[in-house]
Request: fold
Amino acid sequence: MINTLYLPELREMLADGDDVGLREFCVALHPGRTAEFMEGLSAQESWQVIRATDVMTRVEIFKFLEKEKQVEIIETGDPAELSSLIADMPPDDRVDLLNRVTPAVVEVMLPLVPEEERRDILRLSQHPEGTAGSVMTTDIATLSETMTVGEALQEIGRQAQGLETIYYIYIVDGENHLRGLVSARQLVTRLGKPDTKLAEFMERDLVTVEATDDQEQVAAKVADFDFLAIPVVDHEQHLVGIITHDDVIDVLREEAEEDAYHAAAVAPLQDSYLQTSLVELAWKRGFWLFTLFAAALLTAFALKNYESAIDQVTWLVFFIPLIMSSGGNTGGQSATLIIRALANNDITLADSRRVIIRELQTGLALGGALAILGYLVGLMLLDGPTAYELLVIPITLLVVVLFGAFCGATLPLLFRRLGVDEALMSTPFVTVLIDIGGIIIYMTVAMKMIGALSQLGE
Reply:
């Protein structure tokens, strides 16, 4: 509700050409809040508002606008005017934005961007999506190890205006090899000793990543070491960029969203839910839905094969939902635990044997408890079958829960070994697989036991 309060005033200032009022509006609040108050404006109106302020404020507000609105501004605005906005944006943000813009618009706009920024855009655009290079920024504070503290502070003061962050200042040699780093705090605390060489106190044992590394692994490394930024190097240890903590947050959010989509058997959406067309939304949901439907048909075929056995022992039907849900839920739990453990680097493929044994032990305990409960329920509900015949229920429950735990633990590990995202082995797929296996196990145990009891009775 609050976001709509300024809209009439903003539209009135736009209609009157009140640049002074628009400029005051742009600087009155944090850029993020300013962008929130502009949510009800069109892309063209939003651009008219922020173009009234200075360049730096304009860039700050622009990056908080919705992605779809950013793209529309670039695609519908004056290329000559917007090229300066692109040039002033952080390198990683502008590349991410241009990747969303229609290629024809990019072709028109790129020649209008200053040469240095244009080269940087082309260089960063070459990194594949999902790699460290695709999320890094090339705005880096660098110094020489031969500098003194006093010289370093003067140089940082000169560089700081055009940098996204100066949490860490990286030390490089004449060929841009990464030699170490000093923090801004270290420099400030040595103000009293301005002649101290950086080489005397800089950190040399650095944690780095390469531009080709997977962005999820990079994000996990930054989180593990609690870094504010991490340097990106090439195979010869040349410093090529840094990944800052805000980019890591974006990566973690993106990966979490992707895992959530996979867990629900939905192909990840590229745009927001409301911005995604009905055709694309139906396709992304329908493809996996029909795939799961086809897989679930196997359960019906499995039951069809045991039709005669079910006709002879009709009480078996009552416990089919119980058997299928117990196995499927166990498998879903195991798969979720293993997928998250792999994503958090709590386990690796080298731990596969321990993980499977651990899940089987857990499955044995859980299956045993459910088996006892299922047997007691069978005794209370059914009068026809004997106590010996009802042993089909606990035996099947124990085996199915063990089977579910085994599949739920093994399949994500197998996917990781094959180089496929283990999140694809989501709960719906595990459940369908275990449903089929559960039916086969249930009916096989039932036929064997009841057949054996019948022979003993004869």
Notes: The chain has three domains: 2-126, 142-244, 278-457. The longest strand covers residues 178-183. The chain has a mean pLDDT of 85.
